[in-house]
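Appendix C. Worked example: Major facilitator superfamily (MFS) profile domain-containing protein
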Amino acid sequence: MSSADDTYQENKTDVETLRPTATLETDSDSSEFLAHKLFDIPGNDSLTIKTVLVNEAIDDIGFTNYHVKLFFLNGFGYAVDSLLMLIASLTQTQILREFNYEFPILIATNYVGLFVGAICWGVTADIIGRKIAFNLSLFLTAVFAIATGGGLSLSAVCGLSAVSTLSAGGNLIMDTTVFLEFLPSHKQWMVTLMALWWGIGQTVAALVAWPFMVNFSCPETAEVCLRSENMGWRYTFITLGALVLVLAILRVTVVRLEETPKYCLANGENGRAVEVLNRIANKYGRVNPLTVEDLDKIDRLYPVTKEESDKVINFDRLFIHVKGLFPNKKIAYSTCLNFLSWTMIGLAYPLFNQFLPSYLQSRGAETGDGSMNTTYKNAAIVDSVSIAGPLIAAPLVQNKYLGRRGTMVIGAILTAIFMFAYTSVRNQAQNLGFSCANSICINIYYGTLFAYTPEVMPAQHRATGNGLSVAFNRAMGAIAPVIAYYSDTATAAPVYVMAALFIGLAIVSAMFPFEPRGHSSM
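Step 2, the predicted output written as C-alpha cells:
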C-alpha cells in the first residue's frame, strides 16, 4: 500500500473517532437515518465530513420546541407567497375595470417580481446568510403590499405589487432552506408537511377578499367603474398587507432565528456552527456532542484551498454558487431535472387556471350562477381543501416503497387524470368537485417538490439552487397570462396539453437520481 493510502486510512480512522454516537428518542426505525449522507460534497472532503458530524449532532439534540416555532414562522412565508399570488387573481378583474384595461397585466408583473426575487434572494442568501434574508424579506413584502392598495394608476399598482412579490419570492426559498437545515434527519418529512401553509394562505386571502370584493366593487352592469365605487380590491390589499406585517413582527419577536450551522460550515466558521448548536441544546436541556476541536481537526486532516475558503462577496461568488450545482454528472443530472420540473409545473398550473374558465364558458358549461358571491365562495372552498394535499403527502414520502419520488409520481398522475376529466364538466357541482380534486392532487405533487428540491442540493449552494429552480417556475408563470390571452380557448387542446405536461412531470419524478428518504441532506 502506498504512503498516500496509509495516510488516508489513518485520517479515516481519526475521523471515525470524532463522530458522535447519536441516540434518538423517536420511533423504532429512526436509527436508519444516522450518518446516512445523501451524497458527498465533491471537491471538499473536509466539508463533507463536517456536514455529516453536524447532521449527527442535530440528530443527537433531537426535535425541540425551537423546531415547532420554525414550523409556524417558516410556514408564514409559505402562506404569504400563496396569499400574494391569489390576491392578484381575486382582484385583477376589478382593477382592470377601474383603469379600463383588458390584458391581465397584474398577474404577469407579479410573476416577474417573483422571478427576480427568487434569483436575487436565493443567491444572496448563500453569500450574506439565511438569517438576514429570512427576516428582511417579509417586512418588505408587507410594506409594498399595503402601498399597492393606495396606487392611483395601473402602473403604480402593478409596480408596487411586483416589488411586494419580489420580496416574497425569496422568502419562500428561505422557508424550506432554513427549516430543512435545522431539522433532525428523521424529521425531514416535515418540510413536505409545511406546504399545508400554502393552502392556509390562499384560504385566508379568499376569505378576506370575499366580503370586500362582493360589497365594495363596481356593479357589473356599470359602464364606467369609479374609484369611489370600487374600493374592495384596495381594502383587500391593505388588510392582507397589514396581516403580513404582523407575521413579520412575530418572526423577530417570537423566536430569535439562528444562522444555520451548515451555512456557517460552508463559510469556514466552525466556532459559530458549534455555538448555534450549543445554544439550542442548552435552551432545551439537551447535549451537543460536537466541539470546535472536532471540526478543526477535520480541517487539519483535509486542508481547504484558499479558493474554497474565500469569503469575499463579489460577482465571482455568484458564479461559484451556480457552478457548485453541477460538480459531477449525477448531481448535475439531478439539478437539471429539478429545473425541468419547476419549469413544466410553472407553465401547466397557471395555464390551467387561465384557460379553464374560458374553455368551459365556450362549451356551454353551467359552472355557476355567475355572481361574484358564488365565485368567491367557490374560491374559498377550493383553496381550503388544498390543505389536504400536503397532509396526504407527508406520510407517503416516508413510505419505504414510495418515498419522495413515488409521491410526486402519484400526485402528478392524479392531477393529469382529473385535468382530462375536467373537460366533461357541465354544471356547478361538477365544476366545484373537480376543482377541489385538482387542488388536492396538485398540492400532493407541489408540496413534495418544494421539499425535495432543497433536500438534493449541496448545503453551501442550496439557496442558490432552490432559488433558480423557483425562478424557472416564475418565468413560466409570467408567460402563462400572455399565452392564455392570445390563444384560442374554444377547443379542448390546451387542456389536454396541460394534462400531458403533468404526465411528463410524473416521468421526470421517476427519473430523479436521488431518494432523500432515509438519508441526511448534505
